[in-house]
């Protein structure tokens, strides 16, 4: 069975990310409904495009790679659904950092 990262190949400087959802139950045991949850701002990189193409024809190598855990802008990217899985396609410039384990 193929994964979403194998089904979608991002172009240029785009990145395919699986958002990491936060816990839906607080430490005190209160269950949060979907309407009270914030949009995730962290995710796992599933696929990376070849990089941004400059005017002179050179390609800028992406700084993120598949498997990176990244932080991204709250309302960035385009939401897509593949095999009932919610994913984001965003520009590498919307990635604010890589979380080091």
Automatic annotation (TrEMBL):
Name of the encoding gene = groS_3
An example Pfam family from this entry, by short name, is Cpn10
Endpoints of the signal sequence: none
Identify this protein by name.
Co-chaperonin GroES
| Keywords, sorted A to Z | Chaperone, Cytoplasm
Give Gene Ontology CC terms.
Answer: cytoplasm
- How does it associate, per the subunit comment? Heptamer of 7 subunits arranged in a ring. Interacts with the chaperonin GroEL.
Q: Where in the cell is it found?
A: Cytoplasm
According to its UniProt entry, what is the function of this protein?
Together with the chaperonin GroEL, plays an essential role in assisting protein folding. The GroEL-GroES system forms a nano-cage that allows encapsulation of the non-native substrate proteins and provides a physical environment optimized to promote and accelerate protein folding. GroES binds to the apical surface of the GroEL ring, thereby capping the opening of the GroEL channel.
Q: Name one GO molecular function term.
A: protein folding chaperone
Superkingdom, natural source:
Bacteria
Q: Which family does it belong to?
A: Belongs to the GroES chaperonin family.
């Amino acid at each position: 069975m193929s994964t979403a990262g194998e089904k979608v190949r991002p172009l240029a400087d785009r990145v395919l990310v699986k958002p990491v959802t936060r816990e839906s139950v607080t430490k005190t045991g209160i269950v949060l409904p979907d309407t009270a949850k914030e949009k995730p701002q962290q995710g796992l990189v599933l696929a990376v495009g070849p990089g941004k193409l400059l005017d002179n024809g050179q390609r800028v190598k992406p700084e993120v790679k598949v498997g990176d855990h990244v932080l991204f802008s709250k309302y960035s990217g385009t939401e897509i659904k593949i095999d009932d899985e919610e994913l984001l396609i965003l520009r590498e410039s919307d990635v604010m950092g890589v979380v080091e384990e």
